[in-house]
Amino acid sequence: MILLCVGTRAPFNRLVRAVDQWAWKNPASEIFAQIGNTTFIPRNMDYVRNFYSISRQNRKFDRASLLICDLSVELLLPASERALPVLALPRLPIFGEETGIDQITLARHLKSDDFITIAQDETHLQSLICTPDARKRQAIRSSQSGQSGQSDSLTRLLKTIREAR
Amino acid sequence: MPAHDASRTDASGTRVLAIASAGNCWVELNRLTRAFEDATIHFATPAANPAHKSPAHNLWSVTDFSLYSIWKLPFCLLQISIIFLRVRPGWVISTGGAPGALAIMLGRLAGARTIWVESLANSQEISLSGRMAGLFAKVWLTQWPHLTRPEGPEYGGKLL
Question: Which CATH superfamily is domain B6-155 in?
Answer without folding.
Answer: Glycogen Phosphorylase B; (3.40.50.2000)
